[in-house]
């Protein structure tokens, strides 16, 4: 009789669903950020570094940074995203991720992002991308629509340009190592029209200056050849676009093209803000971001 009862109890326990235990992973401080990074090997040979934060039972949120930034780019915004399971990645060539000799086309970066989601066991996530990351996010949403729920483009463009004669090309292609993090180019590169936490910006600028030259040049080639105009209709995910009206890289003409390409997208302009408005006004941006992501 005892064995029958034990067997019945075992069967009953097997039938009880396992409930995930919530864990809140706090956003690292600026001093802790680099050391908080984990890394994961992708099947394409790339090692991708990332910072995991927030509520581990919350909805997954993938954050993709801009050109020569890294996951630290989201450190000022992250404290306002506690209810989500956040994965802030370092794109290949950036931060602590692999920096191969090639290849840095948007398709390469988006493929890495897709493989990363698989590697950490995320089937579908909201995706937020800034600048280069926003183009990567567009490509990810187009090529793997089943993996992207809501899509947010920050300081974005369909066709960034950057060939010979542009400010980007003419300043980036002559760069040689070592890059002075406090030189004119880097201070211009990280210029913002509004104050940004100096502990953050000094670390970010130093890490950016350490990005290998082949990455600076490889991404520049990739951006110069990138034009998503004809592919925009392939994206079906609900979308929101954030833009600072003092953005010196992607001005109102770029935004008009985005609005035309994505007529159903919500659009919010931040008056007086620049290309990095979520560094300048993180709480304000987070309020709009969370409002969009929480919508049915």
Write a structural description:
- By secondary structure, this protein is α/β, with parallel strands linked by helices.
- Helix content is 35%, strand content 17%.
- It contains ten helices and nine strands.
- The protein has helices at residues 2-15, 106-119, 132-143, 167-172, 184-189, 198-209, 213-224, 252-261, 277-280, 282-294, and strands at residues 24-25, 38-41, 47-55, 60-64, 85-89, 125-130, 148-154, 239-244, 266-270.
- Strands 1, 2, 3, 4, 5, 6, 7, 8 and 9 form a nine-stranded mixed beta sheet that branches.
- Strand 6 (125-130), helix 3 (132-143) and strand 7 (148-154) form a beta-alpha-beta unit.
- The longest helix has 14 residues, at 2-15.
- The chain is globular, with a radius of gyration of 21 Å.
- Mean pLDDT is 94; it is low at 7-19.
The overall strand count is: 9
Q: Can you tell me the residue ranges where pLDDT is under 50 for at least 5 consecutive residues? A: 7-19
N- to C-terminal distance: 53 Å
Radius of gyration equals 21 Å
- Taken from the alpha-carbon principal axes, the silhouette is globular
Strand percentage lies at: 15-25%
In DSSP terms, counting alpha (H) and pi (I) runs of 4 or more, how many helices?
10
- Helicity range: 25-40%
Biggest sheet statistics: 9 strands, mixed
Structural class: alpha/beta
Mean pLDDT, all residues = 94
**How do the SSEs run, as a string of H and E?**
HEEEEEHEHEHHHHEHEHH
């Amino acid at each position: 009789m005892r064995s029958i009862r034990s067997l019945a109890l075992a069967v009953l326990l097997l039938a009880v669903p396992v409930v995930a235990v919530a864990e809140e992973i706090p956003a690292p401080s600026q001093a802790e950020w680099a050391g908080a990074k984990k890394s994961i090997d992708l099947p394409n040979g790339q090692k991708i570094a990332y910072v995991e934060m927030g509520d581990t039972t919350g909805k997954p949120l993938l954050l993709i940074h801009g050109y020569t930034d890294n996951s630290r780019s989201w450190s000022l915004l992250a404290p306002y995203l506690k209810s989500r399971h956040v994965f802030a990645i370092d794109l290949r060539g950036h931060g602590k991720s692999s920096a191969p000799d090639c290849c840095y086309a948007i398709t390469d970066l988006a493929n890495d992002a897709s493989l990363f989601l698989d590697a950490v066991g995320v089937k579908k996530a909201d995706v937020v991308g800034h600048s280069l990351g926003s183009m990567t996010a567009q490509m990810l949403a187009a090529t793997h629509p089943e993996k992207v729920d809501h899509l947010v483009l920050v300081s974005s463009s369909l066709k960034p340009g950057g060939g010979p004669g542009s400010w980007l090309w003419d300043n980036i292609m002559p760069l040689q190592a070592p890059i002075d993090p406090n030189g004119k180019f880097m201070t211009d590169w990280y210029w913002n029209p509004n104050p940004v936490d100096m502990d953050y910006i000094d670390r970010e600028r130093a890490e950016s200056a350490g990005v290998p030259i082949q990455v600076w040049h490889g991404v520049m080639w990739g951006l110069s050849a990138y034009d998503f105009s004809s592919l925009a209709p392939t994206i079906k995910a609900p979308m929101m676009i954030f833009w600072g009206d003092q953005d010196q890289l992607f001005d109102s003409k770029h935004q008009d093209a985005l609005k035309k390409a994505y007529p159903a997208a919500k659009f919010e302009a931040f008056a007086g803000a620049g290309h990095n408005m979520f560094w300048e006004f993180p709480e304000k941006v987070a309020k709009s971001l969370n409002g969009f992501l929480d919508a049915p």
